[in-house]
């Protein structure tokens, strides 16, 4: 199913010219060697664009005759056709002769005897260099380009003077050869393709590699691989155990490599995620905004994209009747020379848009003015990671969280454990808005799947009618802290730094002492109206508590944090008279004193 969906994506992009045709692959060329018809070097053209160390090769559709188009093996004999890195082109290093013979062999194998003067000139270039390395001196000792060519890392191809085509691999003879379907000469290398269902087609013994998965080998890794005898059966070699035609293998890997280089790729922890639709759809580009890390040089860009996604899923853009287009989400993780499938989600655009809309609703909460309106998954995970660093996001947690969003299932309990652990350890900024929103989201979704809990649905702001004892304990703790802050302006550390951890886990051990401290703090307040306000608030809050529990479970610890956050936000919110003529208690007391 995964490979078939990727192959169909290839077909869609190839139909509009956005994907390299079979036998070709997108890649860069740094230099062109200008040859005469005898294969002698006449000039060098620098194709790189940009300045200084930021020069980039010019992109072309390059001949693709195997995995060497993405990575070379250590054999030294897997040259590309009419292009390669300078190490192969000039026969550099201890395997230089092997490299040159391999370049010649690729020409002979794929093009054979030909009347094409360009191909013949390039073959002569390699043959002359193999016999006498001084043939290459004009290039390697070039005053401007010799040093960079000598590193062996830049990519080189060829142009022949006085021919109608700009680069040799673009000649009609080469194009025709690469467009011919390869024939399987090995009786074991023909099979029925598991992707297309075609029979007796040339099967790929090894599949092209995948590049762009975070943490995988830079040269690429395999998504389909049978590299040990124990993985094989019935005397079938390597990938013939799960036969896929060479053409289909090339197409699905091109599609996946293209996705991994596009804006439809995103990261969560060590996982790389790509998404695509069955047909062209705006949701393809909008979806990644929910999960991706914002650019470091423009963090507001991520916020704006999240806002745009929120507006699109709430505006009715993705209604059920018109959005039955299938949508695919693939999560990949590195595993040495292989790539592991972490998750695979298939649904319609409407289904995924609905689940994302629910995600946004889950995470709505009252916030300070400068707080982002919407949270991406990356921002949420960073705020539960050690030291708030993305590299410390637990790998499994990222995958489980994303899966719960996309499937509409309860958020993982490990997420609640992680955020509570961070709140207890982060003494300065314990219950940040994003952490409170996460706990609220977890608790409400848990309640939908497992009703009859000790709490009712958590609102976005203060709810004095909440049934959770943990919620009201958190409120009480927030009020006691506020009293301490007003009694001791500029205090360096409050009861939050010292008592929060015990208060939210074993309330009975600390609240009696905190209530005694409260009396001392109230006595220091000069504003008697303010004292009365606090006493009324304490009476209302403690009226919800029948006792101080000896222990709070995880859900109630979460409710404690949300209650604390809601009450803090309510205490710091300016309560000006509203349209109904309400005024805050402090204003009333002040007016009474003046009378």
UniProtKB/TrEMBL annotation:
<dbReference type="InterPro" id="IPR010144">
    <property type="entry name" value="CRISPR-assoc_prot_Csd1-typ"/>
</dbReference>
<protein>
    <submittedName>
        <fullName>Type I-C CRISPR-associated protein Cas8c/Csd1</fullName>
    </submittedName>
</protein>
<dbReference type="Pfam" id="PF09709">
    <property type="entry name" value="Cas_Csd1"/>
</dbReference>
